[in-house]
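User: Quick sanity check before I run a bigger batch. Here is a single chain. Can you write out its predicted 3D structure?
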Amino acid sequence: MMDLARAQPARFFADRFNVTPGVVERLIGSALKGRVDDADVYLEYRVNEELVLEESVVKKAARHVSQGAGVRAQAGTRTGYAHTDDISLRNLEEAARQARAIAAQSGNSGIVAVSGGRPHDLYTLAEAPIAADLARKLDLLGWVDQAARGADPRVRQVIATLASEDVVVLVVTASGWSVGDIRPLTRLNVTVIAEEGGKREVGSYGGGGRVGLDFFLQGERWRRFALEAARQATLKLRALAAPAGTTTVVLGPGWPGILLHEAVGHGLEGDFNRKGVSAFAGRVGQQVASELVTVVDDGTIANRRGSLNVDDEGTPTGRTVLIENGVLRGYMQDKLNARLMGMTPTGNGRRESFAYPPMPRMTNTFMLAGQDDPTDIIRSVRQGLYAVAFGGGQVDITSGKFVFSASEAYLIEDGRVTAPVKGATLIGNGPDALTRVARVGADLQFDEGIGTCGKDGQSVPVGVGLPTIRIDGMTVGGTQV
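Assistant: Done. Predicted structure follows.
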């Protein structure tokens, strides 16, 4: 079934649901032509699997299949959207009528033809993760459990989770254009609880992407994940209280790019800027960051968690330079906001599933490397904080204000990384923080493949990246251990 989809998504939906691109095109064309600006149908077939090992036994083994279609009609700034979990012509016709009724109230007309461009081929796999042998997956979880427990006698509990999915999508427009995609995704996550002297701490690590099961076996990547989760948990057992105040902060490479994603990335999405609610609205061509800062969103990196051959509107993803040498160059766009702003879609129209309309979202967002030696960056700090991993955070898009919790951080004293600290929070303003970037390392790294981004109730997989950077004059909130 899924092998058929890998060969041709359009044929998959035709054979399984008796729905062809031509039929859908005629359906939405006749229902919507002359009444709206644009229209499309999004077909989706999804298989999810989750395996959880806890207390050295399998506590959860679940597989879920979902399918559905969403019909969207656009007229001016108004979007009509209707969806159904029963893919049939009858239901698609009704969804088209509902979408038209919502969108056409604005009185605009005319279907817009959209050029599909050339889709990528970023994640063709010999074996989809969802199709891998169950025994191999359970063996992998068992190895992770044993490695984490053997890492330190203070480890009390290990939870290992392997989550995989395969998604077949097909986008059909009223202008006679269609494109399909097959999207594998898998993630291995390890959570470790360590205890000493009545104190308990939690460490977590993991990764994945649009990769197969062998990705975790290469170089025993699974072992590194297990040992890293155990290291983080035991490290926190001896962590000191984080000091509070204004100080120099050095962000390590890789996952700390989540701060860039949240504090700056969302503010560069097209819808917020079209509505004028972003701190970056109307500032294209202006200096918004240090000259050392270049920020890129790139959905074309092979096998990355945030990558897509085409976005959820059928537009091929691309490499979009958002900030170049501190100057704002553009925004991430879906079709609707690009049309209304007189710009070009950038392949950033994304949705959680067929039950949601697309909106501008990030893919893999990162800062380009600079020229500084990371060791020299640390040495340049007399007193400060070195943050290498982050947990949760909150951001206000309009003002750019953010608060982030560092899950792993250390003191910097006289140019050396010293004691680990806990409870550190970074407080600031995204646009302001970018102007305070004083050093950028040559060591750009991407996260391991764990990012999930939420916006307006929708979650999608994303990637982040960052070289080592120094930010001067940041506010750090501390707490007592």
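The two ends are 54 Å apart (CA to CA).

User: Great, the batch can go ahead then.
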